[in-house]
Amino acid sequence: MSLMTIQHYLTRAQQQHAGATGELTLILNDIVTSCKRVAQAVNQGALLGTMGDLGSQNVQGEVQKALDVIANTIFLESNQASGLLAGMASEEMDDPYLMPEGVHGRYLLLFDPLDGSSNVNVNISVGSIFSVLRCPDGVVQPQLADFLQPGVQQVCAGYALYGSSTMLVITTGSGVDGFTLDHGTGEFMLTHPQMRIAEDSREFAINMSNQRHWPPAIKRYVDECVQGASGPRGVDFNMRWVASMVAEVHRILLRGGIFMYPMDNKNAAQGGRLRLLYEANPMAMLVEQAEGLASTGRQRLLELVPHALHQRVSVILGSRHEVERVQDYFSAE
Ligand SMILES: O=P(O)(O)OC[C@H]1O[C@](O)(COP(=O)(O)O)[C@@H](O)[C@@H]1O
Ligand SMILES: [Mg+2]
Ligand SMILES: [Mg+2]
User: Fold this and answer.
1) What fold characterizes domain 6-192?
2) How many CB atoms lie within 10 A of CB 317?
3) What is residue 13's predicted lDDT score, i.e. its pLDDT?
4) Nearest ligand to residue 116 Cα
5) CATH topology of 6-192 equal to that of 203-331?
6) Burial class (CB in 10 A: 0-12, 13-18, 19+), 32
7) What pLDDT was estimated at residue 144?
8) Among protein residues, the one whose CA lies closest to atom 11 of ligand 1
9) Structure confidence at residue 55 as a pLDDT band (50, 70, 90)
10) Please, are residues 166 and 294 in contact by the beta-carbon 8 Å criterion?
């Protein structure tokens, strides 16, 4: 089987884009390097000797794992190489990271360096999520406000999944393509071109332990799924919860489904559980590019105008008809 390397794929994409400067290609190359390096660290597992909690907390009050910090450092180091970024922002850093003096890039990179990190100690899939934005014209030293762009303005988004194989899934706005890391050659190969999410599905993903906190629309949707063939849906459903958003979105890209982390009575004070800028928005761009839908329940996720770097949000995404159904239930509330 002859597969295209990601370098070849990126060069081709650049050639097809009239007026492309090659900057995005170089930025993506650095992201690819970051993901390979994080994959190596994750794959070391207990051999790394630093699997535990650090005792420190990130800006959101979450206990940091050593690998959260290692992955964050890898992203910061690897993505300075091109000199084409104006700044970076991460789940693990309170404030935006500004580039060294003299570096004036035209793009901003936002990332969750290690998503699902509570799974790291138990050898379940984790991932990295990233989003690339344009730095507003004329801005030399970006400020916080420059990062607060709605998801529709993303130039590129994607994730790496460190699972039974390491995969990279990206969109630059013309569909979603998936690559698998060949550990022999160290290359990501195009194994999943033009991924599409099935319109219908019989599989939902939600943390059921939060049931008592959910809004009525979510209770109704899940209750109807659980009633299966004898309920109003007239068909049996399956449930999954990996507690790694990357793994859930990947499964949905491959075989459809719906993923829900709604705002509920437990997380309402923070606005939800998942972060808008470096979790929800990049995943929403991928899902829409794969013909699915991504919503807060009441609004298209990608149109939300952010007001804070670490803003949280309600997330409902996946198979188009299922997300539409949840939105209808919210409208009927
Ligand atoms: O612990 P819970 O409530 O199941 O939440 C799981 C969710 O939290 C996350 O792990 C949040 O990401 P981080 O690990 O980057 O904080 C998501 O990947 C996942 O969907
Ligand atoms: Mg995360
Ligand atoms: Mg994280």
Assistant:
1) Fructose-1,6-Bisphosphatase; Chain A, domain 1 (3.30.540)
2) 30
3) 87
4) 1
5) no
6) buried
7) 96
8) 116
9) low
10) no
| Nearest atom of ligand 1 to the alpha carbon of 62 | 16
Instruction: Work out the mean pLDDT of the chain and round it to a whole number.
Output: 94
92 CB less than 6 Å from ligand 1? no
Q: What CATH number was assigned to the domain covering residues 203-331? A: 3.40.190.80
- Cα(117) to ligand 1 centroid in Å equals 8
Confidence of residue 208 (pLDDT cuts 50, 70, 90): very high
DSSP state for residue 228 in the 8-state scheme: G
Ligand 1 touching residue 25 (CB < 6 A): no
In angstroms, the CA 26 to CA 199 distance is: 34
Residue 73 has which token pair? Answer: 């450092």
Residue numbers in the known binding site are: 91, 112, 114-118, 207, 279
In tens, the pLDDT along 153-196 reads: 999 999 999 999 999 999 999 999 999 999 999 999 999 999 99
pLDDT band at residue 60 under the 50/70/90 scheme = low
ipTM computed for the complex? 0.97
Contacts of 60 (CB under 8 A, 6+ apart): 91, 275, 310
Render 47-111 in DSSP notation, one character per residue.
Answer: GGS--SEEEEE-TTSPEEEHHHHHHHHHHHHHTTTTS-EEEEEETT-SSPEEPPTT---SEEEEE
Does residue 243 have its Cβ closer than 6 Å to ligand 1? yes
In the prediction, which pLDDT does 272 show? 98
Give the span between the Cα atoms of 124 and 162, in whole angstroms.
9
The ligand whose atoms approach the alpha carbon of 246 most closely is 1
User: What CA–CA distance (Å, rounded) separates 152 from 221?
Assistant: 28
Q: Is residue 116 scored above 90 in pLDDT?
A: yes
244 lines ligand 1 (CB under 6 A): yes
- For ligand 1, is residue 115 a contact (CB within 6 Å)? yes
Query: How far is residue 115's CA from residue 326's CA, in Å, rounded to a whole number?
Result: 25
222, containing H or E segment: helix 216-227
**Where in the chain are the domains?**
6-192, 203-331
